[in-house]
Design a protein that fits this description.
The structure holds 2 protein chains of 2 kinds. Chain A is an alpha/beta fold. Helix content of chain A is 30%, strand content 16%. In chain A, the strands form 5 sheets. In chain A, strands 1, 4, 5, 6, 7, 8, 11, 12 and 15 form a 9-stranded mixed beta sheet that branches. A two-stranded antiparallel sheet of chain A has the order 2-3. A two-stranded antiparallel ribbon of chain A has the order 9-10. Among the domains of chain B are: 2-126, no CATH class; 175-222; 373-452, no CATH class; 615-703, no CATH class; 714-806, no CATH class. Chain B contains 31 helices and 6 strands. Chain B is globular, with a radius of gyration of 34 Å. Classes of the chains: A alpha/beta, B mainly alpha.
Chain lengths: 495, 807
């Protein structure tokens, strides 16, 4: 407290995050007790554990932020974005032995498996003429803003290994997720919010649980922070019951003063980091609830996302509309400097009842995802915000005939060819990359492996995937391990 | 463009000029060239592991060349590919790979050597550099004739090595810490708990000359010692209570391994025995149950059982992890690099990796019945409560029996009533009762309910290893680490660079491997183990990379001290407690940790250890010091895990995570007992850098983040601690804020506040009291304003950096 403050007890001005600037913070801290030294140390950013060890990008970045729309379970590409008329023709036929000889399935019985056509109807949209299924009426209206990859492939045909592969570049548990790598490589942009945030819309939980946003072997401050879309968004964000804002504020002031006195006594730089951490925590306490407060959004925006959609019927738990809310919150987060947002939507794992399952999950996601794209574009954010849509793999052209299934109504896991799309952040929009064969079994042109996707995403952020490394267990690890090539076709040519 | 040409020409001109001017001095291979090759080339290009098929150890090897053919043309530097590789362009050169390029002088010497005919005496073979950690371990001479300042007496050889270092670096040692700091340091390091104010005062006022040694002995004897040092070991063992991956199923019996670790450390089991039991206890002669339980060490690997996965793939990954973990924990070698190819930096070939792998390839995963005495006693006690109630109920029930019952009916009823039937329902035997009499429904319900609560007979099956005897697996190199691509067949053996294995039999087994670690000529395990103990007492090892003593790891500061500690550990019969005793009674350990403790001396990173280090306590201790200061800690040692409360949105992210919250005092047990679900790790622990236990962890991060601040401020458990402590302070010092503040500091920081701190807190208290009075009517917490203010004060002290720091 400065001696001339007329109201030393409750620094109400300090409650306003805009007023609690660093300068004021020091003016307010223990008068005269080495505040200069403290200020000097606080300005040395390298003292902050959360700072990046790679101060700058390797080359000019196109993307500054990423919203990763993770479609957990594996959406069926041939029913959504990769039409296969020939597959419809061959519906009910066995698949040539030569194709499946060395293939492992999670559940399909190879000998009796039959091809299964799609009941969906497709049309071409946009100037680029991209095919979209009738289940995606909203996304169909902005195909010229997205780049569709039909030639994704990897080796992992089970959920968790596949998801770990997609999220971390390794099927083995314990690697850092993409958001952690970016955090580690680029540091934090936000002063008030974590730079890597995760939100979930979950049917039955995620196979990897918190490993889905783990920092793996990177320092733990690079891990994602789980946010809820209502109530208290972050664990321990709210004051304990009965502790008012005033009490919290006065307590923080005393903590800061006593910590500053300790710094005087022992000159330990770590104390300064602690002071700064408490300052950030206090700011986060103000900023995070503001983030969730949608009262400042126009009705048009809320309607566009479908935050209170009435047609989502029978959705008593709010499960379906919560995804719309998360999409809107993702925009609000990137606006506020959050670097990486992952929205998990679970689950597209349609081994059975594919038809109704897809209807439900596209109903949940098509409108809000499209609204997000349009909203970002309209606000000029899409230019440097990368949006990624996709699951851990696709689904088989074969119907799933698992041993105890009475009827064949779904598809099994298929990592050998599947689709994803990207938008914004320096991605060349309005194009389709890669092709699959006429039944959608394998990639016939421009294969894009998960490692290639990661290399490309890092490239968009101005990072060379071969140089963003971390030494662990005697080895320099990178997200692409020993592979990965930038997919140049995805990159927007410099304007 | 023009400018570039110009400078190139100038450059070449210069080079030529240099060469010509040096032409007069003939190059001497051994004096001029050999050191360059040894320093920069031989660690990769040697006869054993010639990278690019090129060895540079001898003339013959050089003349043979490598994959790119002959690399040196005598008398013709321009045609010598070797020179192209080492000459930098734009600041980097092809070779040495991943290292800074050679100096201009070195390159000029090599050029001149080639120019003069690349002479290399035929009988001269160069030796590749040896890793410092593989040098034979000998006991170094203890420095004498030192004149350290009086406040740094040479208590034991540790101090002699350190004092010499100080002298060499011109550093003054920090003064000895005051007793309050010392007792808090010792409690945190040895027990992971805080001293009580009474313990602090008793130590501070103990005038006996050996007061400090007595305190050390007392703490080493405490059963909490095994918890603290056991937790360090569990990091290495990647201990968790679930399997990981999609199913992440609970491992309900693994706590028995944790308990084994705690007991072994409390009993000060010698480190060699401790090791051998864990790697090969099952292979000991007539192994005890405890020795079998110890093999649970390598049962802590992740396991993927997701439907449809390639189970053999994940089995091989578990074995790979076992090899890696063994390498890191005992050898300080990152063997993992050799899973897919020869180790790029350290002398470990891929075949050697799979030779180690084959030691573990026939270790079958089995269990041993390990029900503990306390479980049986607990059950017996529960039965003592349950049985009389049952007998009373049965007597009541009998009155409804129809008579006479035949033998079959009686037997059926008896079975149910003894709790031996599958169901505790009486429905199947109602015909034997007069169910139309009044009270029947009630007695039936009471009996059934009581029967269903019959204490379950405890059965604990410890996960262990048993060596496979039939259908033993053969081991092949996995080409590029892919297990389906079989390379050459291998048999169990240890890496050639290390001392020779001395198997008991023709085919070596895990027991031979475990014993080999402690062979007198094996320099690695003693160094690695001594370093780890040092690390836990100074916050950082003498080797900063405790799992990597290879060429990519850190070099030791004070290498002779490390060797002295390593030999001393062995001399002390591998007694962990004895070595810790030696270290903590040194002057080195007792120095102040304050950065400004020697005026004007500001070597921030403390590389030469002129002071102790100060660092944030580990995640578990953060919670444990709160519980100790609040007086809430439940001190039961060992036993099953606990589940402190968690909000559902944390547990919901995993699949089928049940989190039945521990009841009563259980939830106040120490943090190492918190059930660790690998897919839903306990958030507070992760926020404070607990390892995720996917792989062995030998060094934790110490981050300092806003989420930590939020946790300490607002987490219900931490707030509960502040409430309990605050209320107690208010009750004990109702009208005396000064005294309450003193007591708070004693409980939390083992000291009294400075006058400035006291003023800060008194002012804060009066503000907080005023706020509490103002808010009293609207506040639903139920605290009196006085309590509320004191709770707020306790919360402030518990949020200080010092509270969670070990100085």
């Amino acid at each position: 407290m400065s001696a001339n403050d007329p109201h030393p007890a409750i620094p109400s001005a300090a409650l306003d995050p805009d007023v609690l600037t660093r300068r004021r913070f020091f003016q307010a801290s223990a008068g005269g007790l080495g505040t200069l030294a403290l200020a000097h140390l606080l300005d040395e950013d390298n003292l902050l554990a959360a700072e990046s060890s790679f101060p700058l990008s390797h080359f000019a970045p196109r993307a500054k932020r990423c919203i990763y729309l993770f479609m957990e379970g594996g959406p069926s590409q041939m029913d959504l974005v990769d039409p296969k008329p020939k597959l419809n023709e061959l519906d009910g036929q066995p698949i040539p032995e030569s194709i499946v000889k060395d293939i492992k399935f999670a559940f399909i019985q190879k000998e009796s498996a039959r091809l299964m056509g799609s009941p969906r109807t497709f049309r071409r949209y946009g100037e680029c003429g991209m095919d979209m299924s009738d289940l995606l009426p909203h996304l169909s209206t902005c195909v010229d803003d997205i780049a569709l990859i039909r030639s994704m492939h990897c080796e992992q045909f089970n959920h968790l290994p596949g998801q770990l592969m997609m999220l971390t570049g390794s099927a083995i548990q314990g690697w850092p997720t993409l958001g952690s790598w970016l955090n580690y490589g680029l540091g934090s942009e936000s002063q008030n919010l974590p730079s890597y945030v995760v939100m979930t819309t979950l049917g039955r939980g995620l196979p990897g649980g918190a490993n889905s946003w783990s920092s793996g072997f990177l320092p733990s401050q690079h891990a994602g922070t789980l946010f809820r879309n209502q109530g208290s968004p972050v664990l321990n964000l709210s004051n304990p019951p009965g502790v008012s804002r005033e009490v919290q504020s006065r307590s923080l002031e005393a903590i800061r003063d006593l910590n500053a006195q300790r710094f005087e006594r022992v000159a330990q730089p770590e104390v300064v980091s602690r002071i700064k951490a408490y300052e950030l925590a206090f700011r986060m306490q103000q900023a995070a609830p503001e983030l969730l407060d949608l009262s400042g959004e126009t009705k048009a925006t809320l309607d566009a996302y479908g935050v209170d959609r009435s047609e989502v019927s029978g959705d008593k738990s709010g499960f379906e509309s919560s995804y719309a809310r998360n999409c809107l919150l993702a925009r609000r987060m990137v606006e506020r400097g959050v670097r990486f947002v992952t929205l998990f939507l679970s689950t597209w794992d349609h081994h059975s009842n594919l038809d109704s399952g897809l209807k439900r999950y596209t109903r949940i996601s098509d409108q809000p995802v499209t609204a997000l794209l349009k909203d970002l574009k309209q606000r000029g954010l899409l230019e440097d915000t990368l949006v990624v849509w996709g699951g851990e793999f696709g689904r088989t052209p074969l119907g799933e005939n698992r041993v105890n299934f009475k009827k064949i109504t779904g598809r099994d896991h298929h990592p050998y060819s599947y689709s994803m799309w990207l938008a914004g952040g320096g991605v060349q929009p309005g194009q389709i990359i890669g092709e699959t064969d006429e039944i959608g079994w394998g990639v016939t042109q421009d294969p894009v492996h998960v490692h290639d996707l990661h290399a490309t995403i890092l490239h968009l952020f101005g990072l060379d995937h071969k140089r963003l490394t971390y030494r662990f267990q005697g080895r320099d690890f990178r997200i692409t391990d020993t592979a990965g090539h930038v997919v140049n076709q995805l990159l927007q040519s410099p304007s | 463009m023009f400018a570039t040409h110009c400078s190139l020409i100038t450059c070449c001109g210069l080079l030529v000029a240099t060469s010509v001017s040096q032409a007069a001095t003939p190059v001497d291979f051994q004096r001029d060239v050999a050191p360059i090759l040894q320093n920069h080339c031989l660690s990769c290009h040697n006869d054993r592991q010639p990278r690019g098929e090129l060895s540079l150890q001898s003339r013959t090897a050089l003349v043979t060349g490598g994959a790119s053919g002959v690399v040196i043309e005598p008398h013709d530097p321009e045609s010598s590919y070797f020179l192209d590789l080492v000459t930098p362009a734009g600041g980097t050169a092809e070779m040495p790979k991943g290292k800074p390029p050679l100096s201009n002088d070195e390159i000029a010497t090599l050029r001149l050597w080639i120019e003069q005919g690349a002479d290399w005496p035929a009988d001269l073979t160069l030796e590749p550099p040896t890793l410092w950690s593989l040098e034979p371990l000998t006991r170094p001479a203890v420095p004498a004739d030192l004149s350290p300042p009086p406040e740094f007496p040479i208590n034991n050889p540790i101090d002699a090595f350190i004092a010499r270092g100080h002298q060499e670096a011109g550093l003054d040692p920090a003064p000895v810490s005051d007793r309050r700091t010392l007792i808090r340091r010792l409690y945190l390091d040895l027990l992971g708990l805080l001293p009580t104010p009474a313990a602090v005062e008793s130590f501070v006022s103990d005038r006996r000359p050996d007061a400090y040694e007595r305190l050390v002995d007392e703490l080493l004897d405490s059963p909490h010692f095994g918890e603290q040092w056991g937790r360090h070991w569990l990091d290495l063992a990647r201990y968790a209570d679930s399997s990981g991956y999609l199913g992440d199923s609970l491992r309900p019996h693994v706590w028995i391994y944790r308990e084994w670790v705690i007991n072994a450390i409390n009993n000060d089991q010698p480190f060699d025995d401790f090791t051998i039991d864990q790697l090969a206890g099952d292979l000991r002669h007539n192994p005890t149950r405890e020795q079998k339980i110890a093999t649970g060490f390598h049962r802590n690997t992740l396991r993927n059982t997701e439907a449809g996965v390639d189970l053999e793939l994940y089995r091989t990954k578990e074995i790979v992890d076992r090899v890696n973990t063994t390498g890191m924990v005992w050898l300080g070698l990152t063997l993992g690099c050799a899973e897919c190819h020869d180790h790029k930096n350290d002398p470990i070939a891929q075949t050697e990796f799979y030779e180690l792998y084959s030691f573990f390839n026939n270790a079958d995963e089995t269990t041993v019945r390990a029900t503990q005495l306390w479980e049986i006693k607990q059950h017996a006690k529960a039965m003592e409560v349950w049985q009389p109630e049952r007998d009373t109920l049965l007597a009541d029930l009998q009155r409804y029996e129809r008579d006479p019952l035949d033998e079959k009916q009686s037997e059926e009823i008896a079975k149910i009533l003894r709790g031996e039937a599958k169901s505790s329902s009486l429905n199947s035997v109602v015909d034997s009762y007069r169910t139309d009499e009044p009270g029947w429904a009630e007695i039936k319900q009471r009996v059934e309910s009581h029967l269903s609560q019959k204490p379950v007979v405890p059965v604990t099956n410890a996960p262990i290893f048993s060596e496979r005897t039939k259908d033993r697996r053969e081991t092949f190199v996995h080409i590029r680490g892919v297990y389906t691509r079989q390379g050459e067949k291998v048999t169990p053996d240890t890496p050639a660079i290390l001392p020779k294995l001395q198997p008991r039999d023709e085919i070596p087994d895990r027991l031979d491997l475990a014993r080999w670690l402690f062979q007198a000529d094996n320099p690695l395990p003693p160094r690695v183990a001594a370093n780890r103990i040092w690390q836990h007492l100074f916050g950082q090892g003498l080797v900063a990379t405790p799992n990597d003593f290879g060429s990519q790891g850190s070099k030791p500061i004070y290498p002779e001290l490390l060797d002295w500690l390593a030999t001393e550990y062995r001399r002390l019969g591998w007694s962990r407690k004895a070595l810790i005793h030696t270290i903590v009674t040194s002057s080195t350990y007792r120095m102040s940790s304050a950065v400004n403790s020697v005026p004007g001396q500001r070597e921030l990173h403390n590389q030469r250890l002129w002071r102790q280090n100060s660092y944030r306590v580990p995640a578990e201790t953060v919670r444990d010091v709160h519980l100790t200061a609040a007086g809430l800690l439940t001190r039961t040692i060992g036993r099953k895990g606990i589940r402190p409360p968690l909000p559902s949105f944390v547990t919901e992210v995993g699949r089928s995570v049940k989190w039945p919250v521990s009841e009563g005092d259980e939830k106040y047990r120490r943090s190492l007992y918190i059930v660790f679900k690998r897919t839903v790790p306990f958030p507070m622990l992760m926020t404070f850098d607990a390892p995720d236990s996917t792989v062995s962890c030998s060094r934790r991060e110490r981050s300092n983040t806003p989420l930590q601040a939020l946790t300490l401020l607002n987490d219900p458990m931490f707030y509960e601690c502040a409430q309990v402590l605050g209320r107690r302070m208010q009750a004990e010092h109702p009208d005396h804020v000064d005294a309450a503040i003193d007591a708070l500091y004693l409980h939390c920081l083992a000291r009294r506040p400075t006058p400035t701190e006291r003023n800060t807190l008194i002012t804060a208290h009066s503000d907080l009291l005023r706020l509490a009075n103002d808010e009293h009517d609207s506040n639903s917490s139920g605290h009196s304003p006085e309590d509320a203010a004191m709770i707020a004060l306790a919360r402030i002290v518990m949020n200080l950096d010092e509270f969670i720091t070990r100085d």
